[in-house]
Amino acid sequence: MGVSFPLRKRALAPILRVYPPRMKHRLSLVLATLVVLTAGPLRAADSVGAVLAKARAFLGSESALGAVGAIHFTGTLEVDANTRLPVDIVFQKPFQQRITVTSPKLIEVTALDGYDAWKKRTNPTNSTEWQVTLLDAGQVKRLRANTWENLNFFTGIEKKGGKVQAGGEVTVDGVACTKLTFVHADNIVFSRYFDKATGRLVKTETENGTEIREEGEISAGGVRFPKRVINKAPNGAVTTITFDKVELNAPLAGAEFAVPTLRAN
Fold first, then answer.
1. Cβ distance 23 to 203 under 8 Å?
2. Residue 28 main-chain phi, psi, to 5 deg
3. What are the residue ranges spanned by the domains of the chain?
């Protein structure tokens, strides 16, 4: 779900970016060769509003998109050719997020609750061995942007102080696209390339050069989500999330997002 896995449909990008940097190295996957031409100006018929409307229509009806208040993804995180880990991801309006990655030696939870964010690491063989870290203001802002991207399906960023900028007409992989840039802050930016004919999201790039691609399709509640989201970092490291299930509007209790107390640990 960028989200970029918006996981909305398109925000896996943000999801993969949240995962610890140490998991973002190793074997690179070979992605399709990009052919990007110099961007030209948007025509009147391709205004930002029109592009966003087509992109949303590709994902689902306005009623289906508007009804989404929570998204629960379950699947597998692939960090290299031999390492595949269970992953559980929840986004909940307005600004709650919880990502759990489980390995034989570590259970790691990263969560956002409004303006609070934290990370907890637990030994799966001994629950008394744990560590909780509070995330800083910059990390909180990124998680909030990530959560918004996954739940709002491209519209309404102005309400939270962001903006959408037109980037012109661009060709990606031989597909005529329109580029739009979603700016949450100077250092939190998602550039997206939408198929002019269908509104499909072809590619997402982040401000640091990470490239996000989506493959396949999985549907829930009349909304399209990607089956697989691939993040390629500037250094060539690749992480992939493959979803087995997407469930809408089955919210978690607020306590699941709250900063853990000593008693809860």
1. no
2. -90, 145
3. 12-256
- The CATH homologous superfamily of the domain defined by 12-256: Lipoprotein localisation LolA/LolB/LppX (2.50.20.10)
pLDDT tens track for 84-130:
999 999 999 999 999 999 999 999 999 999 999 999 999 999 989 99
Q: What is the pTM of this model?
A: 0.81
Per the DSSP assignment, residues forming a β-bridge with 241 are: 77, 229
Nearest-angstrom CA–CA distance, 106 and 164: 39
Q: How far is CA 94 from CA 151, 181, 207, 233, in A?
A: 8, 22, 24, 29
Amino acid at 28: S
203 versus 7: which is more confidently predicted? 203
**Residue 237 is encoded by which pair of tokens?**
């490291």
140 pLDDT above the threshold of 70: yes
d(CA 175, CA 103) in angstroms, rounded, equals 39
Rg, C-alpha atoms of the chain: 18
